[in-house]
Amino acid sequence: MPIPMRVLETCESILDGLSFLALTALRHLSRFHKLRRRLLQFLILTFVLWSTIDVILVRRHFNEEQTHLDYKPPERQRIFIASVIRNNERSLPDGWNEAVVELANVFGSDNIFVSVYETGSSDATKNALRELDKSLETNKIGRRVITSDTGPHDEPSRDHNSGRPPYIPQLRNKSLEPLYDLRGAGAFFDRILFLGSVAFTTQDVLSLLNTNYGTYTAACSFDPLNFSALDGLFALRDTDGYEPVMQKWPFFRSSRSRDDMKSMLPVRVRSCWDEMVFMATEAFYSSLGIQFRGVPDGLAEFRLEASECCLIHADNILSGRRGVYLNPFVRVGQDAPRNPAAHPLSSWFSTWEIFESVWENRLRRWFSFPNMARWPLRRRLSRWESEDDNHKERGDFCLIKAVQPPAT
C-alpha cells in the first residue's frame, strides 16, 4: 500500500499544481481582457478629446479671422501692376477695368503703373483692353497696354499643347519691360502686383499688400474654391518643399504651413502663385535681375518640367529672408469677389467638415511617402546634373513630371 499511496499523493500534487496554474492563467487572461478593454476605452477617449480640441481651436480661429484684416493703405507705396491676359472677354468688362482704375484712388495716380500684355485672344478681350487703355489715360495713370495677334502656337515652345514654358515666361517678362524702362528714367517702384483677370476689390489688394504687416518677399492670394487651377497648384509648395497633400483645407503636409492655415495666419510657404501676387522689387532691380523662366532644355529632355511661377521664388535669394506667404484672407476668383468680409471661411465649413478634413489630412500624411514618390524625379535630375558640372537647378522642389514628351 505505501507505494500506491505515494503515487496517489504525487498525482494529487500534480493536479493541484495544474489547477493552480489554470486558475492563475484564467486570472491573468481576465486581467488582459480588462486591460485591453481599458486601453480601447482610453484610445477612444483620446480620439474624441483630440478631435474636439481640434474643432474648437479651428472654429475659434475662423470666427476671429476678421480681427486680422487691415485695409489701411501704407504710406508712399508705388505699385507696378503686371498682367498677362488671353481670352478673358467675360471677366474684363465685368468690373475688372474699373477695379484697376479704382486703385489710383487709393495709392494715387502717380504711384501706379499698369502694364498689360495680351496675346492671341479669339474673343473680344482686345476691345475690353482698349477700353481699359482709354480709362487709364483719362485718369492720368501710367500704362502700357499691348495686344498681339500671336498665340502659343505661333511662338517656339517645348510643348505646344500645354502652352507651358518657355512661351509663358516670355509673356510675363514682356509685361515687366516697362519696369526697367522706367527705372532708366529714374522712376522706381516698391512692389509688383501680378494680377490675373479675376474679380477683386481694393480691399483685397490692400489686405494682400499688408500680409504679415508688410514684411515679405512675396504674398499670394488664395482661391480655395478653385484650388486645382493650373498655375496655383503647380507653383504651391509648403515650407518643406512638398506639394499640397490634399486639394482642400488644410491642404499642407508641412507642420508649419498646416498650422498657419489652421490658425488663419499668413501661411508660410516656399512658393505660391494665384491670381493676385505681390512681390518686392529688390530682386528684379538687382544686378542679378531675376526673370521668369522654364527649366533648362536638358532637363526638359528628361521629361521634367516646372512652373515659372514656382521657379521665380526659387531664383529669388530674398525668398528665404523675408519669406513667401499665402494669405488665407484674400480669396479672389473668376466668378465674383470673394472678399473675406463678405465670404468668411467659417461659413464654408461645418463642424463635421472640420473634423473630417483634419483627420483626412493626418491619414494622408501618415500613409503617404512623398520622398518615395519624388525619387524618380530626383534620379532624373541627378543624371542631368552628372552630365556637366555647370548643370544646376535651384528650383528642384518645383519639378514635376512632364505631361507629354518634349517636342522634337
Account of the protein in words:
The chain crosses the membrane at residues 39-58. Helix 1 (2-63) packs across helix 13. 46% of the residues lie in helices and 12% in strands. The longest helix is centred in the N-terminal third of the chain and has 62 residues, at 2-63. It has 2 domains: 2-63; 69-370, Spore Coat Polysaccharide Biosynthesis Protein SpsA, Chain A. The protein has a 9-stranded mixed sheet, with helices on both faces. With 408 residues, the chain is an alpha/beta fold. The N and C termini lie far apart (106 Å). The protein contains 14 helices and 11 strands. Helix 3 (125-138) links the parallel strand 2 and strand 3.
Topology:
Layout: H1 2-63, E1 79-85, H2 92-107, E2 112-119, H3 125-138, E3 142-148, H4 167-175, H5 177-184, E4 191-195, H6 202-209, E5 218-220, H7 230-235, E6 237-238, H8 255-262, E7 267-271, E8 276-280, H9 282-285, H10 297-301, E9 304-305, H11 308-315, H12 319-322, E10 324-326, H13 351-366, H14 370-387, E11 400-401
Parallel strand pairs: 1-2, 1-4, 2-3, 5-10
Antiparallel strand pairs: 4-8, 5-8, 6-7, 7-10, 9-11
Helix pairs in contact: 1-13, 2-3
GO molecular function: glycosyltransferase activity
Pfam family, one: CAP59_mtransfer
Protein name: Cryptococcal mannosyltransferase 1-domain-containing protein
